[in-house]
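User: I'm new to structure prediction. If I give you an amino acid sequence, what do you actually give back? Let's try with this one:
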Amino acid sequence: MPKKELKHIAVAGNIGAGKTSLSGMLAKHYNWEVHYEDADNNPYLEDFYHDMQRWSFNLQIYFLNSRFQQVLQIRNGDKVIIQDRTIYEDAKIFAPNLYEMSLMEKRDFTNYQRLFENMTQHIDAPDLLIYLRANVSTLVDHINKRGRDYEGNMSLEYLKKLNERYENWIDGYSHGKLLIINVDDIDFIKKTEDFASIIDLIDAQLFGLFE
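Assistant: Good question. You get back a string of structure tokens that encode the predicted 3D arrangement of the chain. For your 211 residues, that looks like this:
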């Protein structure tokens, strides 16, 4: 049997877990190309944090479409891509959470789920999913340090509910290889030994992955 080609690594985790930072650092280390979450250019994000109920559906559709385009590019390209957040998080974490919190109408949520189901028929799961696990206090600390004005309106209850959904999703994740990294007690940005330990874990997962 021919070896499967490594093409898609993804970093998952709650808001403030460190996905973007780690994705960039891993891309540099392994000479991969990184696809970041489109947060800075997202035309709905700031409005969403000021009025979640009004803009929830618009925001989730934007992210879903953006992530779907990324996955298609990865599949059709010839480079190894590391992706900052996955399409599964949009559909399994954020949209259901908004619906449960009555921040998205039932008809919008149903429409969203049907669209996601149609999209996933045309995509493959990541070759390796790296999940950054963090408690709410760690997330808040990271969010405060990066100082995005629109994130100042985010509630602790919102982060807590997202964390619960992440844990449930990861507990049942069965699409492929999974690596869980607890970031509460490490600082992979400032401490080279912490980043090196992550590299060792990733190397262990990738070694023999495509034999």
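You can read the tokens as a compact description of the fold. Here is one thing that stands out. The helical segments are 19-30, 45-50, 52-76, 87-100, 106-120, 136-146, 156-171, 192-206.
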